[in-house]
Amino acid sequence: MYSFFLILFSGVFLYFADAKTLKIKGLIKEYKIAKFLGLVYIIGSFGYLVYSGLRR
């Protein structure tokens, strides 16, 4: 369960906090990458949750 929350909070941080900082600095390419990676981490965390639930 710890891994799920770690991956989820990493994704949420990338999607909201890091992307907002990059957008303010005017780094649009990096902003889009941070938003994309944030979504991938969030979706991946739920994938990990399903995987670990089915493994038991």
From TrEMBL:
Record InterPro entries: CLC_0170-like
The entry's keywords: Membrane, Transmembrane, Transmembrane helix
Full protein name: Uncharacterized protein
Transmembrane stretches, start-end: 35-54
Entry superkingdom: Bacteria
Organism: Alkalithermobacter thermoalcaliphilus JW-YL-7 = DSM 7308
